[in-house]
Design goal:
Elements: E1 4-11, E2 15-17, H1 30-40, E3 45-49, H2 50-57, H3 71-82, E4 85-88, E5 99-102, H4 107-115, E6 121-124, H5 126-134, E7 140-146, E8 154-155, E9 166-173, E10 179-185, H6 190-193
Parallel strand pairs: 1-6, 1-7, 3-4, 3-6, 4-5
Antiparallel strand pairs: 2-8, 7-10, 9-10
Length: 195
């Protein structure tokens, strides 16, 4: 069965973005970008909220045509364009680049999606992640902790009704100081997340 994997970049003080959606503090260098490509090229689909999708769609469809793009950026542009995408939105009518628009997160639909053949499902967006977490649909967390204090902005982990026990699968430090913390949701944690 495929897994739903939340992959997010986080500041040391817990923010996914600074004020006014500032991401300038992200330390994504060639090593880290190559790692992202390696992980994401094996995925079966991207599951994104509208804001994340629109952010990605504003840049990646043509990023490989920019002469200033690095080899890793060119590769990711192709991965992003070709990857099936599901964007969860109550306002978006249509979307391009191999994207299906879905109105609501329905647990049964996600379970059917997980049962399909193919690679794991990469989940993106804090609001969407909160909905998936409430329904107990996240199997793994891959948090990329950046060595920076943002001070204020949007947090990743919003309030939840229960505790979600996690088991560390891997930690890895990149040359730029970013640390990957990879956790699996404990198998008996379903009751804590409302399954």
């Amino acid at each position: 069965m495929r897994k739903v994997i939340l992959m997010m970049q986080l500041s040391l003080d817990g923010f996914i973005e600074g004020p006014e959606r500032d991401l300038s503090w992200h330390r994504v260098d060639e090593e880290l970008h190559s790692h992202f490509n390696e992980e994401l090229r094996t995925m079966g689909a991207f599951l994104d909220g509208r804001v994340t999708y629109e952010l990605m769609a504003s840049y990646w469809p043509t990023a490989d045509q920019d002469p200033a793009s690095t080899a890793a950026e060119i590769e990711f542009a192709r991965i992003w364009r070709d990857m099936p995408k599901i964007v969860y939105s109550s306002t978006l009518a249509t979307a391009g680049w191999n994207t299906e628009v879905v109105r609501d997160v329905v647990a049964e639909d996600i379970m059917r999606l997980k049962e399909q053949p193919g690679g794991d499902l990469a989940l993106g967006g804090a609001d969407l992640a909160a909905a998936f977490r409430r329904l107990g649909l996240i199997d793994e967390y891959r948090i990329y902790l950046h060595p920076v204090l943002v001070g204020r902005g949007k947090t990743l982990f919003q309030g939840a009704d229960g505790i979600t026990p996690l088991r560390l699968l891997e930690s890895r430090t990149f040359g730029n100081g970013v640390v990957l913390l990879r956790y699996a949701v404990e198998a008996d944690a379903g009751h804590a997340e409302g399954r």
